[in-house]
Structures are given as C-alpha cells and as structure tokens.
Amino acid sequence: MLKEAVFHRPEGPYAHPAGPRALRVRLRAKRGDLSSCHLFHGDRYQGEEEGDILRLEKAGSDELFDWFEGVIPSATRRLRYVFYLEGKEGGLWYGERGFAADRREAGAFQYPYICEGDLFRVPDWARDGIVYQIFPDRFCNGDKENDPEGIEPWSAAARPRPNSFYGGDLRGIIEKLPYLEALGVNVLYLTPIFLSPSNHKYDTADYYRVDPAFGDAKILKELVRRAHRRGIRVLLDAVFNHAGYGFFAFQDVLQRGAASPYADWFFIEDFPVVTTPRPNYETFANGVWTMPKLNTAHPEVRAYLLDVAEYWTREAEIDGWRLDVANEVDHRFWRAFRDRVKGVNPEALIVGEIWHDAGPWLQGDQFDSVMNYLFRDAVLDFFAAGRIGADRFDALLTRIRMMYPEPAHFAMFNLLGSHDTERFLTACGGRLERMRLAVLFQMTYPGMPMIYYGDEVGMRGGPDPDCRRPMVWEEEKQNRELLAHYRKLIALRKALRPLRRGDFRTWLVDPLRNLYGFVRREGESCVGVLLNNSPHEHRVEVDLHPFGGAEKLRDALSGRTAEAAGRSRLTWMMAPFQGVILTPVG
Ligand code: ARE
Ligand code: CA
C-alpha cells in the first residue's frame, strides 16, 4: 500500500453533509492499491469501542488515484470515524493521527456536528434542470420599435463584429417560449439585460433599468410570468465584478475626481481619471476601460449591489443568478449575496462563472453551481478534437466530480459552448456525428445540460464575436435532424429519472477502440450508456452486474434489444460514433 497516496480530511469534497443526519465521506488512494475500504464510525461521545462498520464503494478513478465514497448515517450528528484499508499486504487503520495497525493508535477523524446552518442546500429543481442560454440581442427580434440604430440584417449569413447590433429583445424571447418548451428546456439563462451601450451589456450603466433596446421591467416580468406558466425558470446575469463607464458612481468620479464620494468605489491609481493611453484605474481583464472594477469590499458598494440583487429577485420573481467573473470578487461579498438572494427566494439558484477548479466557492456558503468549463474541456478533447482516449476522458471526469461536494455536482451547468467560446460544431470541424455523440453524453451525464442558443439547429461560429450570430429561424436553414436529436435526448433525460438523479459509475473504458460506457443508478433503477467514439464498427461487451438480475436490455434511442449471453455478459454491435441508452426489459 502506498501510504503517501492516501488522503482524507474532514472537510470540503472529502467530507460534507449529505443531509441533516448523514455525512458523505471520500478517501483517495493509489489506483489499484486497495482491495477494500471500510469505515468504523460512531458518535463522538460514545465509548471508543462502540460503533458501526460501513463499506465504502469505489466511486471513480483517474490515472493515479482511486476514490472511495460512502454516506455515514448519524442520528446524533456528531461523528468520529477511522478508515480500515485493505491491500495486498493486509489491513491498516487510517485516522487523524495517521496509519497504525491499532485502531486507537490511528486516532479518529472528527466531524464535530452536522450544523443546520452549514448544510449545502441546492434547490431540488436543479437536479431536473435543462438550461438554454440566450444572448438577447441575437435570439429573436420581437419588437422593431425598440431596435438600436444601425442594426444589421438578421440572416444566417450574418458575421457579427464586436459592435454589431441585431435588434433581439425580451419580446422576442416571449414569442419563442413555445419553441423552447417544445425543445424541452426548463431553465433560461439570459446574458445581461440592464442598461448599457454595448450589444453584450457587460458594461452596466444602470443596474435598475432594463435596457430599452431589450424592453422594460414590465416586459421582463411578463417574460418570467409566461415562462413560469410553461414550467420554465429564468436566471439573469449579475455583473458585479465591474460596472460600466456610464455607471453614475464612475461618472461622478470622472467629474469630481478625488472629491467624489464614490472615489473609493473603484480602484483609482491617480486623479484625474483618464482612459488613455491606458486607464489609470483597475478594470475587467487588462485595461478594458469601459469596465471599471468595483471595490466590493467597500460597505456602500456592497450594500448597493446587494440591493440590486434583492430588488430583481423580488421584483421580477426570477429564479436565480449567473455571476460574471465570479472568481475575482471577494468570498465575503458572495456569502452576503447568497444570504440576501436566498432570503428573498430560497429556491433561487446561484451559478458562478468560473472556468477552473471552483472548490472554494462550492462549499455551501456561496454558489450552488458553476459554468462547468472543465467539463467542456474534457468533452472537447474527447469528442470534438479526438485528442484524448477513453481512459484519459474518464480520468478527467472523475477528477472534476471529486473536486466538489455532491450537491454542487448535480447542479453543474454542463456546457459544450457559450457566448465566450467557439461553437461546438465548429470545434468538431463540422463533423455532425461527433457533435451528436457529445450531446448524447451531455444529456446523460450528472449535472444540468446547458445548450447555447442555436447549437441545437447546427449553428456554427468561431470565438467571440463569431459565436454570437443571430439565431437561425428559417427552417430550411436549420439542421432539423440535429434538432430532433436534441428533442429526443431531452425527452429521454426527463423520462429516465436515473439520468437526472442517479449515481455515476464507469462501466467500460476501452482506449484501444475508443469505447466508453457508464451507468446511472438510483436505488433499483439503472440506465446504462455506451458510446463508440470511433469511426469503426465495434462489438462491445459489457457485464450486466450493475443491472441486478436483468437479462435483456433495450436501447431507448433505436428500440433495439439484446439478451445476456450467459454469465451476465452482454454484447452489442455499435456503428461508428453511435451511442446507446440502455434500460432493462421486463
Ligand atoms: C472583448 C473582446 C475579446 C477580448 C476581451 C478581453 O471581444 O475578444 O478577449 O474583450 O479584452 C464582455 C463581452 C466580450 C468582451 C469583454 C470585454 O462579452 O465580448 O470581450 O466583455 O469588453 C475570462 C474571465 C471570464 C470572462 C472571460 C471573457 O475569467 O470571467 O474572460 N467572461 C465574462 C463574460 C464575458 C464578458 C465578461 C466576463 C466581462 O462571460 O462575456 O465579456 O464582463 C481562459 C481563462 C479564463 C478566461 C477564458 C476566456 O480559460 O482561464 O479566465 O475567462 O480563457 O478568455
Ligand atoms: Ca428589437
């Protein structure tokens, strides 16, 4: 046993409440090293000899490590536990004091009390969420009266530039609610809609005003109300890392310099404030002068922005927020933000925009979820670029899952692309079969699938601004087969509960032939997914143990069935780039 590889700490992804009276624990060990992992656990106030034994399951592996996982029930909420690890050379205890042959000597990890206030509560609806991201200027123009000046023609041939406008608005989104409902999505995430001179509106001039080119507060409320009637929730974009050049407080600093009462709302190097040759104040990214960074540690700034968040949550009855540049704003601010927003609507969802490991924000006190760019990176490498094999893909997925507490994991925004990235079909080099398989994977993986508007009809586009072309609505220019594929998969995700709520376990990893499979299990129900991510036909053989006694499986996509051929093994012929979603028959 390689002791140096064994790791546990009673916090974060390694130990977190699974409910008011249960603790989820994880232990990491060298891959293939442990034949089993058990826990001896008890109440902290019980005698040392008293306790129960729990067997942990192997939840996943990457190149170097295996992760074991289990849920400890605790009637009293006060826990102590020691691991018992079995390897080739026998067993060993592992606890707070390290490794020992004797349990008492190893010491026990302590989880002093599962406090109500520390529970990671993610709204339950998120587990069933299927998200659709809309960039309002480009989705649908429902009101020609409010169009900005000089809009460009809405056409499939349009190639947006950084400053193009197309006239899309909230009325347009309302008009397309039947389309969205038929597609099957049940959460809309809109990029910013408040007053701003740009097409993307990430440079807010007035947080209390819906941009007139998009509509007004009344139309926003109507949109939310009508979406709710169709079972669709609405999230808005909170841009609190920075304001826009036109924001009243920044304008005041421009005019009054150091004497402005708002001078400390920003990070100003010297006065007077200038934008050229480079801005002498902090901005978003490097010198984006239109976006002065806000000092969110300042009590007045904090109060101002929290009021904004509370106002729209209450006023428009929205269902949550996506937080822009979330990892560059202080944790204290986000904790206060969570309290304020959930205070108004406990069912609101909070999703940070973080492209990397978001562990520090996903402990239950700040965000519920993040835009899962790490997921996208892995999917891109495996399906679109074909740069990695099934083994590496599985390893990356495990790493991401093990980074976060379980509640966050089921609420992740699993995206293939966004308004900030090249579109997925373009990343696939236009090879539709690859995109279709990736979408199948996205729709069967834990976490909320997020569709970037237009991906479902085969839109293409390079990086920003090309990924923001106006939505293609002419049916003859849409890829209707791809759309049907999306609809079918969304319907299946809704019909098969384990796809939304079940555990994830790797089922098949075949790097040689590039086959990948996994099962999603909830209680007695189990769904299996097999993917042939290669241009060749393959005979796939898998064991049926995850399905209990099942002898026959059916593919929910093609309707084909196959029976076990003895010893619980099943073989399935798979066409190039085919994926199947298997459920037991009978
Ligand atoms: C404009 C230009 C871009 C240029 C950019 C930066 O169009 O070509 O790269 O300026 O100078 C909004 C607009 C953009 C606009 C930008 C600045 O939508 O069109 O871009 O404002 O005017 C990082 C951040 C992440 C951020 C991305 C863009 O971590 O928070 O950069 N995303 C949000 C929004 C954007 C928005 C803003 C922030 C600003 O989603 O739409 O931009 O409010 C790596 C890094 C990431 C990095 C990512 C992308 O993976 O690790 O940290 O994200 O690449 O660059
Ligand atoms: Ca319009």
Overall description:
The protein has four domains: 3-118, Immunoglobulins (Immunoglobulin-like, Sandwich), CATH 2.60.40; 124-241 and 296-495, TIM Barrel (Alpha-Beta Barrel); 242-295, Oligo-1,6-glucosidase, domain 2 (Alpha-Beta Complex); 499-584, Immunoglobulin-like (Sandwich), CATH 2.60.40. It contains 14 helices and 30 strands. The strands form seven sheets. Strands 20-19-18-15-12-11-22-21 form an eight-stranded parallel beta sheet. Strands 3, 4, 7, 8, 9 and 10 form a six-stranded antiparallel beta sheet that branches. Helices cover 24% and strands 27% of the residues. The mean pLDDT is 97. Residues 162, 200, 202, 239, 284-285, 288, 324-325, 353, 355, 419-420, 464-465 line the site of acarbose derived pentasaccharide (ARE).
Classified in CATH, the superfamily of the largest domain is: Glycosidases
CATH architecture of the largest domain: Alpha-Beta Barrel
What structural category characterises the helix and strand content?
alpha+beta
Secondary structure: helix percent: 10-25%
Cofactors, ions and other ligands in the entry: acarbose derived pentasaccharide, calcium ion
Report the CATH C-level class of the largest domain: Alpha Beta
Average of pLDDT: 97
Question: What would you call the shape?
Answer: globular
As laid out across the biggest beta sheet, the strand order is 20-19-18-15-12-11-22-21
Q: Profile the largest sheet.
A: 8 strands, parallel
